[in-house]
Amino acid sequence: MPKIIPIRDLKNTSEISQMCHESREPIYVTRNGYGDMVIMSIENYEEMIRPDVPPPKNPPASTGN
Length: 65
Known about the structure:
With 65 residues, this protein is α+β, with helices and mostly antiparallel strands. The chain has helices spanning 13-22, 42-49, and strands spanning 3-6, 27-31, 34-39. A three-stranded mixed sheet has the order 1-2-3, with no helix packed on it. Helix 1 links the parallel strand 1 and strand 2 (27-31). It is flat, with a radius of gyration of 15 Å. The termini are far apart.
């Protein structure tokens, strides 16, 4: 079942980010009760537009030395 949230919930950025990464489907955002936009993680978006290409691996974190 698709996840639908009101636009006012976008204030909770860390919670929304977590929802996007946990969900394999886009999250629908409503405004005044009507669909306004769709959000999803970068990984899921790249998978959707280029299903034949594996996602890029994250480079190792720099130690600063």
